Amino acid sequence: MIYASTDSFTCSAASATGSQADPFCSVQAAVDAAVSGDTIDVVSSGYSTLESVTVRTSDLSIVGVGGEAWIDAANSANGKPALILDGASHVTVSNLMLQASGAPAVQVVNSTGVTFDSDYVFTYASPAGALTVDGLSSKVTVSRTGLDVGTLPMGSGGISIASGASGITIADDILAATGVSATGVNGLTVTGNTIQRGCASGVDVEGTSTGVYVENNLLEDANPSTDYMLRGYQSYCVANGKPWAPDVTVSLGSSAGTTADYNDFYVYGSDATSPYSWAGTAYPTLAAFQSGTSEGAHDTADPTQATQDCPRNYTNVCADMWLTAGSPADASANLSAPGALSSDFNGYSPYTSRGALQYASEDPDLALSLSALDTSAYGIQLSSSVTSGSITAQVPLTVSITWGDGTTASEPASSLGGARDVSHTYARLGTYVVTVSVTDNHGNSATNSLSLETAGSDYTAYGPVRLLDTRYGTGAPKAEVQPHTSSRLRVAGNGSIPPSVTAAVLNVTVTDATSAGYITAYGDGFARPTASNLNFVTGQTVPNLVVVPVGADGYVDLYNGGSGSVDLIADIAGYFTQSSSSGYTSLDPARLVDTRNGTGVAKGQVTGDTSIAVQVSGGDLGSLPVSGITAVALNVTVTGPQGSGFLTVYPDGEKTPVVSNINYRTGQTIANAVVAPVGSDGKIRIYNGSGKSTDIVADVVGYYSAGGQSAYLPISPTRFLDTRSSSWGGGPLPSGDYIYMPLGVNPPGITGYVLNVTVTDTKGTGYLTVSPDPNSETQYQDHTAVWPTRPLVSTLNWLHGETVPNLVQTGSGANGITDLWNSGTGSIDLVVDGLGFYQND
Questions:
Q1: Residue 496 has pLDDT above 60, yes or no
Q2: Could you tell me if 746 and 779 are in contact, meaning their C-beta atoms sit under 8 angstroms apart?
Q3: Helix or strand or coil: residue 32?
Q4: What order of strands is seen across the sheet that includes strand 39-43?
Q5: pLDDT for res 389
Q6: pLDDT tens sequence across 238-296
Q7: What is the 8-class DSSP label of residue 786?
Q8: Is 404 left (phi over 0), alpha (psi -120 to 50) or beta?
Q9: Is 577 helix (H, G, I), strand (E, B) or coil?
Q10: Is the pLDDT of residue 102 over 90?
């Protein structure tokens, strides 16, 4: 055994010994070292060996190993063949890729007993053809081989056989826009080939030839529909002064020694021409040929076009090769024809069809599996895998997809096996049944369906309603929540909240705290995150809005991370489901209400035990639509209260619910995020549940509506920023400064973020503002960013030494960067946890 490698980049030509461990760096070196009886393994490396190889030694086998090993003369020896057999006998060449330019890829000269099997033979612009046999050669077989003469097949033959040659067999080959031509041969068998003829005849027998058999072949017209790269179709040939020859031409001198039968002819559209020119007479139809000669009794006209494919993944040899259902070539071959092989081009047997490929009429093992992956709030990636146990993996397929939303897709799949990924974006959230059907060109099919839900969730305003109050046994036993334990809150199925709820908007309040601590809200059954939602000190009553995933069992856990017991209150303002309801529209934060100066309402403090109506839809704030708002996202602040109390925000026109959004003490300035249902008149009410008056400020950050296209996607709570950590490196945020926080816009379509922002280590008093940044990350990196304009709104307020959290819903802006402004009198530390994001379709 002698080894040659096609990897000229790594092997060492000077020291190569031809062993498996140390192969020759060229095929020619291996051939020169071989003696009769040797086998040369040409090991494929993914590269081609750039050379022209001449073989003069007899009794050799040259075999490509590890895929089609490639000998390329086109890029190394232009004008020379890739392989020449000169005076050699009993040589077998198999599984090689042989390429040339301006010359035949293969030349057989004065040689006998030569076999080419399962090769690829390709040449550019060679008038002589892709493979030539001279008149001194005999007993040459070309089988199961793909042949092509490039993109300019101006009448040249794929295989050309010179006068005097004898015993030539051409069987089970695929010839693309070319054919077989022979002159004055003695013994020529052309059997079981698929010949997609170009300008010249698919089979052309000239001179005085004898012992010629042309049987079991599929002869097709190259056409501009599937074969435009080959350029061998009728309009191209005529435009370039070439004849559109009959499919088979047999000269007068060769007609007596030629047998033609069991051939199948497919004519593309108007390209019809004579199937035969026989003994100088062109016969326009098979019937005319059969009645005018003694030949072609079993020939058929094929009404079905074969399906195009490229055999063995060749990049150039592509032809209409796969028989389709209803083809008369199916199971109609003459199995006793001279040169007939027992297996087809791909080695499939039994082989009973005309042409190079067997038609597999049944495939009971054809199967289709489906899986889907969420790619966005509205998008999925569908993976389909097709398998079969009874036909070759190169059968081409057509995939038809019904997405379940009234849209469909249809596209070809290259072959059986492996996963095929297709993406789809739904216009609306919901549950959809996707149905996929796969059909091969043999008429076999498989169908499978998959029910899936889009990942995003839309909002439904609800209440507000109190779901939990451990002081009175509402929603849980009447008992304080002990340290390092959780209170389980039922959400799904509670009242009219549906079982399909994915997340809830809750205002959670801690009261009667016996020590400092924190509360973490999370879906029951999920791992408890390390992030906190609100922080408290001994004796403090403090609320915070949370957007929390709901567990599969419909519950939410509220974990007490303090060392003492607490009472917990939870009021629901709405919930999310994976069906279309109200989508979110993020806004640049803007002031909706300020009783201190009369913005949005009458100027003056709101007296105790009274409420104010605030116009949301159609009000003075131009960023809000005139109608259609179902809920509004606010940041509400109490300032200058004359006594202790609470605020309740609810839809106008409804009775004041027994819930609270903000709890405050005399003189305290405190803020909390609020998502408030909007009344049918487009208004909300803010109730002052104190005996004393107070000022109220409300900033709008977004709204929910039936026309809103942004759906919510929760994430596992993720820490985006902690100025206390060493990895941050920037230290506390100074007074009057801001931190820009790139949150990104990938995946695309993100319109807003849901964050829990905590201010701690406060060195003075003040307030925080969170808003989108107009700059890009690139501008910050190359120091061309402009100083943003801070909106005149607030997100949370603090006093010296306090730790204050608040939920923040902020828009993504144009570049996915969020600014956090310190408008206090001293530095602060910031902790930002990501809870989810909004994404449009």
A1: yes
A2: no
A3: helix
A4: 2-5, 39-43, 60-65, 89-94, 112-117, 138-143, 166-171, 186-191, 210-215, 258-261
A5: 57
A6: 888 888 899 999 999 999 999 999 999 998 877 778 999 999 999 999 999 999 999 99
A7: P
A8: left
A9: strand
A10: no
DSSP string of 611-636, one letter each residue: EEEEE-TTSS-TTS-SS-EEEEEEEE
What integer best gives the mean pLDDT of the chain?
Answer: 91
Res. 415: pLDDT tops 70:
no
The structure tokens listed for 14 are: 């000077």
Cβ atoms of residues 394 and 358 within 8 Å: no
N- to C-terminal Cα separation, the chain: 62
CB atoms within 10 A of CB 427: 12
List Cβ neighbours of 117 (8 Å cut-off, separation of 6 or more): 92, 93, 94, 95, 141, 143, 144, 145
**Across 293-302, 348-357, 619-628, 682-691, least confident range:** 619-628
Question: Measured between alpha carbons, how far is residue 485 from residues 34, 503, 516, 524, 534 in Å?
Answer: 82, 22, 15, 13, 16
- CA-only gyration radius of the chain, Å: 40
pLDDT band at 8 (very low <50, low <70, confident <90, very high): low
Return the structure tokens found at 406.
Answer: 């009234």
Instruction: Give, in order, the Cα–Cα distances in Å from 551 to each of 463, 485, 501, 717.
Output: 21, 17, 9, 15
Whether residue 821 contacts residue 740, with contact meaning beta carbons closer than 8 Å, is answered with no
DSSP secondary structure, 246-292, as one string: -SEEE-HHHHTTEEEES-EEE--GGG---SEEETTEEESSHHHHHHH
Token pair, residue 639, equals 């300032």
What would the two tokens of residue 819 be? 């600014």
CA 211 to chain CA centroid, nearest Å: 56
Asked whether the bond before 747 is cis by omega within 30 degrees of 0, the reply is: yes
Q: Give yes or no for a cis peptide into 734 (omega within 30° of 0).
A: no
Residue 452: both structure tokens together: 């899936």
Q: Which helix (H) or strand (E) holds 201?
A: none
Segments in 761-819 forming alpha helices (H): 777-781
Burial class (CB in 10 A: 0-12, 13-18, 19+), 283: buried
DSSP code, position 304: S
Give yes or no for a contact between 581 and 629, defined as CB atoms under 8 angstroms apart: no
Query: Cα separations (Å) of 345 from 119, 177, 285?
Result: 11, 18, 29
Contact (Cβ atoms closer than 8 angstroms) between residue 171 and residue 200: no
Closest by CA to 616, choosing from 576, 651, 573, is 651
What type of residue sits at position 303? P
Report residue 298 as tokens.
């079993």
Q: What is the pTM of this model?
A: 0.63
Report the SS3 class of residue 667: coil
Find the Cα–Cα–Cα–Cα dihedral 509, 513, 516, 518, rounded to 10°: -30
